[in-house]
Amino acid sequence: MKLVTCRKMNGVCLLFLGVFSDPVRVKVEGFVGDSAIFSCSIPESEIQGKTEEFSVHLRDDEGKTVCDITGGNSTCKDQDPKYKDRVETFPDEYKKGNFTFKLNGLQKNDARKYICHITGPSQNHTITELHVKDRPGGRGNHGRLNGELLSIVYFLVIFFLAGILIFMFVAVTFCVARMVFRY
């Protein structure tokens, strides 16, 4: 058990009062372009309908703000530009003690440790180590075909091949008709 009084983040001292257990440590792997989930929770029995009394802070290992949940509301207004428009939370889950964050559009430089602090009537501290890899076959940020694009490519190839077959059918029919009506 540790008494944490101050945690420096972006040059600002965040005050955390209370007794914290040792942090939960998690390893997460993701692929470039996909999403990663940062689990951050406390037992539902500790929430007891007091979601607004909890504050949740997700920071990267450089102290940059990823996102915050305060008073039962997600507030990403002070987040680092690197994470802008890439973070999701799940408000329907807060009342269950689940303050999970989702980081979308993973990039290689997102690979690092992330620290989630939950403060309020109960506290928790989770450290998530994120590893980001290129997709198998060397596809990373560039050259990745999603399902919709792949479907369009298949359609165009089939359309092109069908066009060639129709052209050949018409050409052969025309040649045969010329030979038949010539005699």
UniProtKB/TrEMBL annotation:
GO cellular component terms given for this protein: external side of plasma membrane
Superkingdom: Eukaryota
InterPro entries linked: Ig-like_dom_sf, Ig-like_fold, Ig_sub, Ig_V-set, T-cell_Activation_Regulation
Membrane topology classification: Single-pass type I membrane protein
Transmembrane segments: 152-177
Chief location bin: membrane
Biological processes, Gene Ontology terms: cell surface receptor signaling pathway; cellular response to lipopolysaccharide; immune response; negative regulation of T cell proliferation; positive regulation of T cell proliferation; T cell costimulation
Keywords tagged on the record: Cell membrane, Disulfide bond, Glycoprotein, Immunoglobulin domain, Membrane, Receptor, Signal, Transmembrane, Transmembrane helix
Span of domain Immunoglobulin: 25-133
Keyword Cell membrane in record: yes
SUPFAM superfamilies xref list: Immunoglobulin (SSF48726)
Compartments where found: Cell membrane
Alphabetized PANTHER family for the sequence: BUTYROPHILIN SUBFAMILY 2 MEMBER A2-LIKE-RELATED, T-LYMPHOCYTE ACTIVATION ANTIGEN
Descriptive protein name: Immunoglobulin domain-containing protein
Native organism: Cyprinus carpio carpio
